[in-house]
Amino acid sequence: MVHSLKPIATKNTLVEEGSDYVHAATSENTRLAYQADIQHFLSCGHTLPTTPESIEHYLRTCADHYNPRTLIRRLTALRQWHKLKSVSDPTQSPLVLKTMRGIARLHGRPKKQAMALRLKDLDQLISYLKESPSLKNTRDRALLLVGFFGAFRRSELVSLRWEQVSFVGEGMILTLPRSKTDQTGEGERCVIPFGNEARCPVRALLDWRESAKQWEGFIFRRISKTGTLGKQAIGAPYWNRLMRQLAAAAGLPHSSDYSSHSLRRGFATESARLGASMPAIQRHGRWRSTKTVVEYVEAGRQFADSAVNVLFEF
């Protein structure tokens, strides 16, 4: 049964017009996700404001078709909508909470995560790209090395501009004007020193700048099939596809399990495996959540820290 309340939201509005500051308080990606979630709820025949019974009906209808994490996110969008309107929040009712717990218990499954890129696999990718020198391969080599050693989020990497890079004697400093954990725009810095020649992200970026003959605008730009360098940045979806294509072309096993996030995750797990401290990893990767870093660090040290090692000594 779908409950009918007088709607004060349509499929195209998450918040009422008139408050740029309200919009600015939430990141664009989060706002777009909430907008899509609200639209889905409305497209199923429900109205806003809504009731616990209506949400329970919605959850039951969606339970067999969507991951519980998706439904939890949609509940968050509904909760934010009701809070913004200063109306009673039905998402916290016992009926909704128990329904969601039941769905999670019956339909929950492990979160699929991108495979962490190991250093040896990064070396294999770089060797593959060096086999056939081209403008695209020079760009992709810089993209991989800067992305890995900078521990960049996908959105940060594809939007990097030359104006954000300062080359200094010890390496380079990249200034991020806004990021997932810096929504107020105070700015964060990523410091990358020179490395060994084969893996050096600083030299790779300098090589790309020399090949592209560009000193301003987006760093990682689109290249046409004819090899012409454009002015637009590569898109985030393209970067995901490119990562899988490169992994397959270079002969990495399980190439379909890689994504652009493999670089950021790989930096953390490989740094931990080779002895970097958790605070150093968290600081360089600009993680605000210690929980996320702990997960990556434990993955990097899972064999070295295994209790089984003690038994092998006797």
UniProtKB/TrEMBL annotation:
Residue stretches making up the Tyr recombinase domain: 112-309
GO molecular function: DNA binding
InterPro entries recorded: CB, DNA_brk_join_enz, Integrase-like_cat_sf, Integrase_catalytic, Integrase_recombinase_N, Phage_Integrase-like_Recomb
UniProt-listed PROSITE patterns: CB (PS51900), TYR_RECOMBINASE (PS51898)
Ranges for domain Core-binding (CB): 9-86
Keywords: DNA integration, DNA recombination, DNA-binding, Plasmid
Top-level lineage group: Bacteria
GO biological process, one term: DNA integration
One Pfam assignment: Phage_integrase
Name of the protein in question: Integrase-like protein
Organism per entry: Coxiella burnetii
Gene (name only): orf 314
